[in-house]
Write a structure and sequence with these properties.
rod-shaped, six-stranded mixed sheet, alpha+beta
Length: 381
């Protein structure tokens, strides 16, 4: 079976992954609010950029000058990376964001959710995941790293707040700009693209985790020393299984709670999301269901591998105890004979016989050989 790095290299050839920088710096626009604003782009009703560089207030004024999005106008898309409360204060006032939603957006580690504040603003949270490359599992290695994307969606704006070292939306925005007809559908189209982007990453990570599980399964069943270290030189089989189970739980926490928000986005009528776009959210929900099913099968498979490995360890320990018991029984023969004739009684007839010593050695040897052959025949040695 090929090693894990070779398998991953083959997968990358078949399915290349887009380069995703840690921070989206592709757009030169910067806000005086601080460096957390990494992009600020205004789009017209046809889905093309209105200007090359703009501040947040200028972008919003330019969009609203052409009419609201409900009348066919454009929208502004602002991207932020881990902003502080002071940096976000001006955006809150400018767009009239709900204080509770802002408080949740500034605090990471939120559950995936979708909430409406009136009919003019929606707040959604998505957990992002990425696969952490590693040669082998160690006691401190990561398999899945999680982040967070918070999306504020209004009639003429989309504000994304990203937490974590990965999950940049720069490549996604560039891809959408090559399809202006999608951006022409308004902020709801951007929200769908972000949800689809996040769930696609779940699928990629699930495939990588499956590779780890396949390698672990082969290593556990091929190991000749199940009670000790694994043949790959990492953790013992049990330790590596628990390490994967912990990382799988992290992936499950990101994917499982997202089912309800996607259901709301696809089924709940509202003014911000066109009925045609809601159909696409159903497709994203189907992809998410596939991921959750994969995770459930991974958990069941890891449980089976763990039980099989523990059975291997128990069998190996039993074999070791049988070998020890067999050798103890063999050694007990000369020990018993030597103990009897070492008591130094005066009336022991064999002590005066010229053949006593060689006869005793022959009896001891013959008995030990017979016992050894019997134990070998029964599989104890």
């Amino acid at each position: 079976m090929p090693t894990v790095p070779v398998v991953r290299s083959l997968r990358r050839v078949v399915r290349p992954r887009a380069s995703r920088p840690g921070v989206d710096l592709s757009h030169p626009a910067r806000s005086p609010l601080g460096t957390s604003v990494v992009s600020c782009v205004a789009y017209d009703r046809e889905g093309t950029r209105l200007m090359a560089e703009c501040g947040i207030a200028d972008a919003l004024a330019c969009v609203r000058k052409g009419g609201s999005s409900r009348e066919g106008g454009g929208f502004v898309w602002i991207g932020l990376h881990e902003p502080t409360e002071a940096e976000f204060e001006g955006i809150t006032e400018l767009f009239g964001l709900h204080p509770l939603a802002v408080e949740n957006a500034l605090e990471p580690h939120q559950r995936p959710k979708a909430e409406w504040f009136g009919g003019d603003m929606m707040y959604a949270v998505f957990k992002t995941v990425t696969y952490v490359e590693h040669e082998k599992l160690t006691a401190t290695s990561e398999v899945v790293d999680t982040g967070e994307i918070v999306v504020f969606t209004g009639a003429d704006f989309v504000i994304t707040v990203r937490h974590g070292r990965h999950g940049s939306l720069g490549p996604l925005r560039e891809a959408l700009e090559t399809e202006p007809e999608r951006l022409a559908q308004g902020p709801a189209a951007v929200l769908h693209a972000i949800a689809d982007h996040v769930v696609d990453d779940y699928l990629l990570v699930a495939d990588e985790v499956q590779t780890d599980i396949d390698a672990l399964e082969s290593d556990v069943f091929a190991s000749e020393t199940p009670s000790g270290g694994s043949s790959s030189g990492g953790l013992s089989g049990t330790g590596r299984i628990y390490q994967l189970k912990r990382e799988l739980l992290e992936l499950k926490r990101a994917t499982l709670p997202l089912a309800r928000p996607l259901e709301l986005l696809s089924d709940r009528p509202n003014r911000l999301i066109d009925p045609e776009i809601r159909k696409y959210f159903r497709d994203v929900a189907d992809h998410l269901a596939r991921v959750t099913e994969q995770i459930a099968s991974f958990e069941a498979l890891l449980d089976s591998i763990l039980q099989a490995h523990l059975a291997q360890v128990s069998t190996a320990q039993n074999e070791g105890m049988r070998k020890i018991s067999a050798w103890v029984a063999i050694v007990a023969v000369p020990t018993m004979v030597c103990g009897i004739y070492g008591m130094n009684f005066d009336h022991m007839p064999e002590l005066r016989s010229p053949l006593g010593y060689p006869l005793t050695l022959v009896v001891i040897t013959a008995t030990c050989v017979a016992m050894y052959r019997a134990f070998r025949r029964n599989g104890w040695l």
